[in-house]
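Hello K.,

You asked for the raw outputs rather than the summary table, so here they are, unedited. I folded two proteins back to back in the same session to keep the settings identical. This is the first:
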Amino acid sequence: MEDLNPSNFSFSTSRPEEGPIDEVANPLPRAVLRMNNHMLLDGQWRFALDDDDEGLREGWASGHTYRETAQWPGSVEEHLAMARGHQGAAAWKDQIVVWYEREFNLPEVAEPQTRSMLQLTFGACGYETRVWLNGQPLKTIEGEEVHYGEYTSFTYELDESNLHLVNRLTVRIADNMDAETPRGKQESYVYKRGGIWYQTYTGAVRSVWLEVVERNRLRSRVGVVSVVEDHLVRFNLTLRIHDPGDYTIRLQVFDPVTPNRKEPLAASDFPLHLEAGQWQQRVVLEVPSAELWSPEAPHRYRLVAQLIDSEGYPAQIETLFGLRKIEARGRYVYLNNQPIYLDGILYQPGQATYEEMQRHMHAMKALGCNLVRVHIAGIDPRIYNLADELGLLLWVEVPSPHSSTPRSRENHRAELLRLVTLSETHPSIIIWSLYNEDWGAQDIATNAETRKYIIDTYHFMQIAYPQFLVVDNDGWHHISYTGRLKSDLLTAHLYTPDLARWRELLDRLVGGEMEGTAAFPLVVGDPFFYRHQVPLVVSEWGGFGFSGYGGPEDAEARTNTIRAFKQELRRRPIAGDVYTQATNIEDERNGLIDPHTGALSVPEGLLASRQMEYLQ
C-alpha cells in the first residue's frame, strides 16, 4: 500500500505562538484547530464483505486475505457496488458487515513521549464500528469497545507499547435496517426506499486521521454560551488528564480583524487541581465592548485556550466563536434582543460532497435566506463553520429512529448528546428539533411515556444548552403539559399549491385553530390555548415542482407562486417560514438549486423579506 507519510514528515504537539496566527483553513471536519501536524489516512484501503458475519469468530483482525480495495472516505453502498461489479451504488435490505484494513508508518514525533501520544480520530463512521491496531482491540476515550452512531467523530489514544514501525489498522463496520436506531430519512424496516425515503448512505463516510496530542490537554470541543447584556462568555471545556496534578486553564480572546492581533481583548487564568480522567469545566470570561454576531454582521472572535501543567507547558487549542443571544418571546423570535423574521429553506444534503455543500450554502444565502433548516441529517462540521462565516442561521435536527420504543428513545438521546456536544461552538446554530412529524414518536398522541421522554429532554436542553431554542416535534403534535407548550416554537407544515387555500390555512393558524390546519392536530397532551404567547413558524411549505405536492414546474410560474405565497406569510403575525426545499434529492424533485453546481433556477433574493415590514 502506498505510504502517505513522507520521509521528512514529523509530528509535533501544539506550538503556542506569541499571539494567534492568521486564520488557517481547517483541513479536518471539526470546529477546533490544533496547531500540530496530522496525517490523513484517507485513500485506498483493503476491503472485504463479511456476508455471513464470520470475521469476529474467525479472527480477521489477527490476519485476513482481502481481495478487494475501497476508497476511504466512501459509503458502504459504493464499496459494495465496486466489489460486486455493479454500476452505481448497491443497495442492501437487511444487514451489512464489512471490513477495512491498511498500514501506516509510525511517524517521527518531535515531542518527548512522556508528554505526547498518538491519537486516531474517525470523522464519522457507522453505525457500529470496531477498531484494531496490530490485532489488538482499541477502546475510544469514552471507553467504548464498540462505537455506535454514524454522524459524529470519535477518538482513540494509541498505546505506545502497541505501536510498531509499520502498523496495521483494521476496522469492522456493521449496520442494519433497525428502525430503533437513528436513521433520519434513510430507509429502514418501517420506511422503505422511495418518495421521501432515501437509500442508505453509511459506513466510512468521513475522513480518518492521526495526530500527536498532549497526554494532558483540552479536547477538541468547546461550548460557548453568551449573555449579551452582561458581556460575559461562558466556555464549556472538556479536559483529558493522564497525570494528576495542578493545572491552569488560560483563556485569551483576540479580534481576528483588528491590526494588532497579539494583544488579547480579554484574558484570564483559572487554576485547578485535576485527577486522571476526562473532566468538564465551565469558565466565564468578560469580553467588554464585544460586537455581536448576526446574519448582517457575522463578527467572530478567536479563542486561544491553553491547559498549562505545573512545569509551565501549555497544551493549546484555538477556535472562532461569536456572541449572540436567541430568544422566543411572544409572537416573534429575537436575536440579540431584536425581532428577526426567519427566512428559511429546508436543506437535505444527502450524498453531497463537502465541496457541493459549500456551493449550496452560498446559493441559499444568495436566495435571500437567513436560516437553513438542516433536515434530520448529520453534515461535515466545517459546514457549520461556513455558516458562522456567512451569517446563516442554522436549524439542526436529531436524525430520527423510525419506531417508538424504550430502546429507540435511548438511541435517540445518545445521538442527541453526541451531536450537541460537538456543535455547541457555533453561533449560527440557533434551533434544535428533537423529532419531526412523529418519526420515531408515532405514538406521541397516545403514549404518555413518549411524551414524558420528549418533555424531559426539552427541559434538559433548556438547562444544559440555553444557547439554543428547542422544538419538541416539528410540524404538528407539539406537546402541552398543564397548558404549557414544551416547545419554544409552535411549528406547522402546510402544503397546498392553491393560493386561496393557502390564505385560509394561514388565517386558521394565526387564529389559534389547533385542528384542521396541518395534517394532524398541532398540539397533543393537555389543552393548549394559543393567544400569541409563542412564535408561530411555518416550518415547511411549497414543494412546488414535486409531483406529489402539486404546483407549477415552469421556473417563471414557480417564481411568481413562491413570491405570492411568501407575501401572504409576511402579512400575518408569523415569526418565520421554511421553504421546501434547496436541492433535488432522489425522488424529491422540488429544489431551487442545482445539487452539483449550486446554480439557482429562480432569481436571487426570492426568499428574502424585509425584516420589519409587517412587524406591528
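The second followed immediately with the same parameters:
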Amino acid sequence: MSQYQQDQAAFADLIAQNGTWNAISPEYAARMKTQNRFKTGLDIAKYTAGIMRKDMADYDADSAQYTQSLGCWHGFVGQQKMLAVKKHQGTTDKSYLYLSGWMVAALRSEFGPLPDQSMHEKTSVPALIEELYTFLRQADARELGNLFNKLDDAKANGGDVAAIQAEIDNFETHIVPIIADIDAGFGNEEATYLLAKRMIEAGACCIQIENQVSDAKQCGHQDGKVTVPHEDFLAKINAVRYAFLELGVDDGVIVARTDSLGAGLTQKIPVSNTEGDLAEQYNAFLETSPVEDLNALKNGDTVMKLNNEIVKPVRLPNGLYKFKDNTGFDRVVLDCVTSLQNGADLLWIETEKPHVGQIAEMVNAIRETVPNAKLVYNNSPSFNWTLNFRQQIFDLWVEEGKDVSAYDRANLMSVEYDETELAAVADEKVRTFQADAAREAGIFHHLITLPTYHTAALSTDNLAKGYFGDQGMLAYVKGVQRQELRQGLACVKHQAMAGSDLGDTHKEYFSGDQALKASGEDNTMNQFD
C-alpha cells in the first residue's frame, strides 16, 4: 500500500471517530497532504542535505556524476527552471538551485539596485530561500493536482487507474538543494550564526561563505578584495556548523570560498602563538621591508618579527596591509586545505577566467593534503566566455605550430570569426567545459551565479524592441506566446500556473457543488487546451 493509500485509510478512521466531520473526504484530505509533503523549511533542509551528501559520494565514485545549478532571483524563476529541467531531462536528479548574493543585492533590496558589497538587508537572503521553496512546493501541488484529475477521469471512464496511481506514488518532487550565499557572514561570527539559522530554517541545506572582510566585501570579480586571517574565517565556519547542528540538520553542507587568488590585501595581522601556526603562515605572505634602523621608523609604523628578522609590513593609506605579488596560488591552497581540515565540506575558488588547467593545478596541490577535495565552481557571466575560449584555442594552435595567420588574437570576439574553424573548436570546448572540469579539475558542482538576471534583460529587450517598434503586438505573439505553445510551456496558461486550478479544486473540496469556480466555459485560458 502506497503512502497516499495509507493516508486515505488513516483519514477515513479519523473522520469516522469524529461524527461532525462527515463532509470531509478522506481521499481529498490525503491528496492535500500528498501535495504538501514538506511542512517546514527544516523538513526541506534535512531532505535536501541527504541529496547533496549522496551526490557528493556519487561524484567521488565517478566524476561524470557532477551536479549543476542556475542562480534564480525570484521564486517563479526557480519554479520555471525546475519545471523545465524535469520536462526536458525527465528528472531533477543532480540539478540544484543557486541563491546568489549578487542578485539579492541587485534585485531584491528595499534600497533598490545595489553592488555586491553586503549592503543589502541580510533578512532578504532567507526570505528568498523561503520564496523559492514556496514556488517549488506549488509546482509539486500543481503537477500532482493534474495527476489527481487524470485519476478521476480514469476512474470515471474506465482508464488505466493503476498506471496513474503508480505515477502519483512515484512522483518526483521539484524540491532540490539550494546552495545559498551568505557572503562573508554579514558581521562577526555571532551575526553569521544567527543569519545561518534563519537560512537553514527557510530550507537551506548548503551555505557558502567567503573569506573576505565582511564590512569591506566586494564582488568576486571586482578589484579591492580584502581577506581575513584563517582564524577569523574558521570561526565563521564553526558558527555555520553550530547552526546546522542546533537545528537538527546534522549533514548540512558548508562551502568555503576563497577569494585569495584575486585579493592582494588583508585588514589585520593575526597573532602567532606557536612557530609555524596558521597566523605565521598567513603573515609570511605579507609584503615587508627590513627594518635596519629603529630610529628611522615613523609614528604609527607597524613592525614585526618574521623569519627571525625585524620587518615592516607594507601598509596602505587606508590602513590595509599588502600581500606579496604572485602569492595568490599558494594562499588559495593554504586557504582550501585549512578550511577542509576545519569543518568545510566543499571548496569554491574564485578565478579570473574559466581555464580547466589553471583550476586543476590548484586542486591537485590541495589534493596532495586532502585527496577527496572537490569544488563548487562559478561559471561566471563576468567571464567573456567566447573570447576566453577562442584565445585558448589560438594559443594551443600556436603551441602546436598550426598556422593562425588568419586570426587576430586580440580581436577574436569579432563576428567575422563566428563561422571559422577556430570558433567551432572553441565552442565545443565551452560545451564540454563542465564535464572536462569535473573530470580533470575536481569540480563537483557547476553553477552560473546570475544567468537569469541576463535572460530577463535579454528577453525584455527583444520584446520591447519589437513591441514599441514596427512589430506591435506581433512581437509578443510571435516571440513569446507562440513559442510558449510550440515548446509546451505550462505557463502559457498563466492563470493555472498562478494557482487558479488548485484553488478551484480546493473550493470544490470545501463547498461541493456550490463552489464558484474560475475554470468554467468563459475562462479564456480554455483557448490553450
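The radius of gyration is 28 Å.

Happy to rerun anything if the numbers look odd on your end.

Regards,
P.
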